[in-house]
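Handout, section B. The chain below has 357 residues.
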Amino acid sequence: MPEKTRKPGALSALFKQREVGLFIILAVLFLLVGLRNPAFTTGSNALFILEDTAIMMILALGMLCVLLVGSIDISIAAIMALSTMTAGIVMKQNLNITEIQVVTDGVMGSATLRESTPLILLVIIGMGVGALCGALNGLLIAYGRVLPIVATLGMQYILYGVSHVVSDGQAVYRKDMPDSFINLSRQAFLGLNSKIWFMLVVFAVMFLFLTYSRQGRYLYAVGSNRESAAMSGIKSPRATLIAHIIMGMLAGLAGLLYASRDTKITQDMAMGYEMYIIASCVIGGVSVSGGRGKAVGVLLGALTMGVINNALTMLRLTGNSEFWKKAIQGALILAAVVINVIIQRSKERRVLRDRRI
């Protein structure tokens, strides 16, 4: 009689999940830093880290879609710059400043009211321009068969140039922004900053899309085996195009939140930010060759990046040296990636060992 395969228990199956290992690493890192500086482990600081990494998480969720199909996008910072600059020029040209009378503590005074294009329209403009940029990337890669890194690298410089032309070489500052846009990243609801709520909504939508929708599962199929996906009737170019459009839309949204937080829009806004996003995805267990990765893992990867950045600041290990800060960041990111690779290989060996032929 064939030998019966023993099914693992629920607890054993839980610890085989890659995200659980990453969560443990993150918790250990959090506690080790807390031993050096107890203020690091306070609830207020944890909330600050989550708020500070919310934009990174939104971008990482978009990059997840792109990596799942075996592509990559290193033009996301340029997409952020162009989409946000376009919305910024619109709000600047339609800005209307009026003086109003207000009563504060029973005392009559004056205040400045800054109004411009409706906020929802600015969000639509930003995400729309981002989607268009993502579509151009997707068309070049999916239908033009240009290597993803080549296509997005070239597009990065083109978009920065277009952003310079659109802005006529000028930046958009706080004085050019309406109150509604400035408050976009500053409002709070149920004790959570609006950036966190935006991230949670994006996460919920992306989780449902990747887990339960047909198009979302197609991304995994294309990245796992493009030839088999094509034989199953899945249109790989279309899946790649959709992934890049999603990345562009989320880059546009993230750019608006980024500009609202910093109250400044420049032609080279967020330059170099793409490296943090890719690192967040890799740390979160996303395969750069496609077909593997989860939304939860991506959030944990971005949160790990946020913990590292915050820890370096609170521990003051690098003083005012940006060089040493980046060197330590790189070393810790590399260590996190290596640990995750070890975990993944251990998991694959365990699967092979438990397989019955």
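Note. The domain at 22-29+41-96+108-351 is CATH 1.10.3470 (ABC transporter involved in vitamin B12 uptake, BtuC). Compare this with the example in section A.
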